[in-house]
Design a protein that fits this description.
5-stranded mixed beta sheet; single chain; 20% helix; 7-stranded mixed beta sheet; alpha/beta; 256 residues
């Protein structure tokens, strides 16, 4: 199969002096997660790592000059692909198995997931007309042989644990619903929340095989009370507290 090859796999945008967001423009929108880099005094933080089609560590080489903590907000395919490149890998216990034995062994959507899950995503509001997760490949990567590589989880994190960068501290919030071990990273000093797929400004998925609507409602009720200034989600643009409350209330109105 002839497939477009590209020299550049990632794009990035600097949010402020410490935070950079990266993404994979050649991955279809459904699977194009936000990859967050946070610069710290003693160590840096990576929140989610994308599909793993190209080397994230290589892409970050010009902005990372200290040890890295690579956190997975949850274990879904689009968030864990490059965790294997990092020495310190952190995830909730309920999601660890997906990093250590990633299920994605094909870039073909139906082959990877099955038709029922693809149809469920369409019902949730996503366009799933593509048959593949990507529309191009990096030079040297073969469509037929791609498979995500296992990561070695070095620390299990749960509600109340602290991710310490030296000058910045993020509290782990357990935010289940989308998946059992979904977490957010909350910095109270700045009102910053890295929310993964617990909340983002797009169609929220709560009908996956391990999703739980009741848990998601509890998570949304909790987020309504969180004094955030900015939410950096797992997908789509960042937003503030007013938009967070709109999203949470709309979800609760639909599900309660």
């Amino acid at each position: 199969m002839t497939f477009p090859l590209v020299d550049t796999w990632f794009e990035r945008r600097k949010i402020d002096d410490d935070i950079t967001v990266l993404w994979e423009p050649h991955v279809i929108e459904l699977m194009r997660c936000n990859i967050w880099h946070v610069r710290g005094l003693n160590r840096d933080l990576i929140v989610d790592t994308g599909m793993g089609v190209a080397s994230l560590a290589t892409e970050l080489a010009d902005i990372v000059d200290k040890p890295v903590l690579a956190v997975a907000t949850h274990g879904h395919d689009d968030h864990i692909g490059s965790h294997h490149e990092f020495d310190s890998v952190l995830v909730h216990p309920a999601e660890a198995a997906q990093l250590e034995n990633p299920p994605l062994t094909s870039l073909d959507m139906v082959q990877a997931w099955g038709i029922e899950e693809v149809e469920g995503l369409a019902r949730a509001g996503y366009e799933v007309t593509d048959s593949l997760f990507v529309r191009a490949l990096p030079i040297g990567v073969e469509l037929e042989t791609f498979a995500q590589k296992p990561a070695r989880v070095t620390r299990l994190i749960d509600e109340g644990h602290i991710i310490d960068l030296g000058d910045r501290q993020f509290e782990v919030l357990h935010l289940p619903g989308h998946s059992p071990g979904s977490i957010g990273l909350w910095e109270a000093a700045t009102g910053t929340l890295f929310s993964g797929d617990a909340v983002y400004d797009g169609p929220l998925l709560d009908e996956l095989h391990h999703s739980n609507v009741a848990d998601y409602c509890t998570t949304m009720q909790r987020l309504l009370e969180l004094p955030v200034n900015v939410v950096h989600g797992g997908h789509d643009p960042s937003f503030g507290r007013e938009r967070l409350q709109q999203i949470a209330r709309a979800y609760l109105d639909r599900r309660l």
